[in-house]
Sequence to fold (189 residues):
Amino acid sequence: MRLTILAAGALLPLAACNQGPSTEESARRTGEVRLENASMEEVAKQSAAADSKAPSQPGMWEETMQLTGFEPGGAPEAQVAPLKAQVGKPPQTQRGCRTERDGKPLDVSKFPAMAKSCRFAKYVTAGGKVDAAMDCDTPLGKSRVSITGTQTPAAYDLVMKQSQTVPGQTKETSMTFRVTGKRVGECKA
Fold:
């Protein structure tokens, strides 16, 4: 009897780790989204529900974007030279006022043009961490986008990588960006 109780107690933490896919209701209740093989629409609905638990803070935000990696694949040098020159340069920084309606930086509801041609192999936002992978059919072939990092109501730090093999080329082209943001104060009226 004691062994059965100990075994059940040992399995309880494992059951909590494998929570399965989220629903709109669980996303609203926990602020977490856990999906696999999901449509853009499904991810957008659950993300909106989760944002009600910990919405992005309105105010003055400082945001940066930097191209941190680029692999040209088989693209002609004349086309890729401008991108190669941007790798490693200081991030582009901008400041602006964000309202409650602006939502979080990773807001898939703002990707409507991609909605029909993309699916998320996985989309997880839990405990302030982001781990997503999206596959798309584009006019230039299949594309994969991965997004990892952290996102809280007052800051984010995300790495996005897009890779694709353009028809007629044998090597994959990829770009890696780092985007960060933090709330730096109130907006001036």
